[in-house]
Amino acid sequence: MSTLLNLTDEDYLLIEDAIAANARGRAFLRMRDQRSRVVATDDVKRLVRSLTTSVKKAASPENEGGAHIRILRQELHDMSVCIQQTRSEVAALRPDESGNNRIMAATGELDAIVTATERATSEILNSAERIQALVSRLPRNPETKTICEELETQVTEILTACSFQDITGQRTTKVVNTLHYLEKRVNSMIEIWGPEALTALGAVERGDNRPDAHLLNGPSLQGVSQDDVDALLANLNSTAQPEPAAAATAPGAKAATPATAKSKPAAAAAGKGEGASNGAINQNDVDALFE
Amino acid sequence: MTNLNSNVLVVDDYGTMRRIIRNLLTQIGFSNIDEAPDGATALGKLRERAFGLVISDWNMEPMTGLQLLQEVRADSKLKPLPFIMVTAESKTENVVAAKAAGVSNYIIKPFNADTLKKKIESVLGPL
User: Fold this and answer.
1) For residue A2, what is the DSSP state?
2) Predicted-complex ipTM score
3) Using CB atoms within 10 A of its CB, is residue A247 exposed (0-12), middle (13-18) or buried (19+)?
4) Are A93 and A186 within 8 A, CB to CB?
5) B12-90+100-111: which CATH number, 3.90.226.10, 3.40.50.2300, 3.30.70.120, 3.40.640.10?
6) Whole-number Å distance between alpha carbons of B68 and A262
7) Which of A152, A160, A170, A173 has the most B C-beta neighbours within 10 Å, making it the best mutation to test the interface with B?
């Protein structure tokens, strides 16, 4: 039995060049390529038909594979819903247009708590130490000895009780670190989805339905000082009596207050130059505003 | 009897705690009390002059109280120094680790003056 002859690449190219040396040979090569493409296309079409048939067969209700595909489709749908919900939640956490970031804000509030408790603790310690010093100066006689000792014991109790600040500080730091971690993860998700895609999801319900919810922000890190408040009330007192109910519920009140308050220190400072009776008010004046 | 004139080093990153412990030590009778806000500063002070007792927090940065303790025990000159850990770390594994590192005693925050005094006495002897 004779074996088929195989050509080397070099032989193939030599023969092809020889055939392509004249117009008739080149026409032969074109026709050969065209017929080869037709055969290849027929093969691909046959393969696609075969796959389509297989998929349709597998998806048919009578087929066990069809049930699997239905389950798979349902699972994909559920996943899609979950992803959509997650996007909405991430959108709720992203910084809004005014630059507010809830996680950052929460972190700031916690830092403020630590600072405030540290300051308060320091003041308590100052007072306790002053009492301690005063007690040590009291003359000790049979009548006062017991009282002095009891005072010293109580001062010691105050001192040791102040160690709560260390404990709460450590716990708060843990929470702050967790918030930082969450913030990084949320930012990563925002990067994955793209801030524009999340913006399109719109505003999220904040959950407080009280009529004055827009005024209830708690202690603020950027709040006005007591001087600002005094100046603002003095200004209101000298112009017109405010309508408390309207001020508390008017949607515009929130936006108007900070701007007004911020402009007041300058006004108050100017007022001081005009005379003591023209800007300064005392606590009684403030009280009168609320009667 | 314990020498109340010996130097005591209080190590804690919270100024409030250093102040409280300093005050309690003064009430007990110690008169030479120094402070450090972290382990590295404490180690520097310990190598500068002689101390009779270290009272240290655990959770500090960058060097923790446990690391400070290990450094102290690894230093031939500081090795015998009494070292009391005062910390909010209250898990058994913490106490075990501190003991393994050579801590002299262990006080869990929050604590009271009586506890501090008793632990010092257990390390240094009657006050």
Assistant:
1) P
2) 0.78
3) middle
4) yes
5) 3.40.50.2300
6) 50
7) A160
- ∠ at Cα A128 (A125, A130), nearest 5°? 110
What are the residues facing B10 on neighbouring strands?
Answer: B35, B55
B19 touches chain A (CB under 8 A): yes
Same domain as A133, residue A182:
yes
> Which two three-digit tokens encode residue A102?
């809830």
Would you call A206 helix, strand, or coil by DSSP? coil
CB nearest A170 (choices: B20, B23, B88) = B88
pTM confidence score: 0.58
Give the type of residue at A55.
Answer: V
Do A175 and A230 fall into the same domain?
Answer: no
Residue A127 shares a structural domain with residue A190: yes
The answer to whether residue A12 scores a pLDDT higher than 80 is yes
In this structure, what are the phi and psi dihedrals at residue B10, rounded to the nearest 5 degrees?
-105, 120
Encoding tokens for residue B87? Answer: 């910390």
Most confident of A66-80, A227-241, B16-30: B16-30
pLDDT digits (tens, 9 = 90+) for A246-255: 444 444 444 4
| B12 at interface of A, judged by CB pairs closer than 8 A | yes
A215 within some domain? no
* pLDDT greater than 80 at residue A243: no
Is residue A75, in this structure, part of any structural domain at all?
no
Beta pairing class for B83-87 and B53-56: parallel
Calculate the alpha carbon distances from A242 to A129, A233, A234, A268, B114 in Å: 46, 10, 12, 19, 58
Residue A56 pLDDT exceeds 80 = no
Position A5 in a domain: no
Q: Is residue A6 part of a domain?
A: no
Residues A187 and A228 in one domain: no
Q: What's the structural domain count of chain A?
A: 3
Same domain membership, residue A238 and residue A281? yes
Q: Is A188 found in the same domain as A248?
A: no
Cα–Cα distance, B80 to B75 (Å, whole number): 9
State the average pLDDT over residues B44-58. Answer: 96
So where are chain B's domains? 12-90+100-111
A170 and B59 within 8 Å at the Cβ level: the answer is: yes
Query: B26 and chain A: CB distance < 8 Å anywhere?
Result: no
User: Tokens standing for A176?
Assistant: 């702050």
Q: Which domain holds residue A121?
A: 102-199
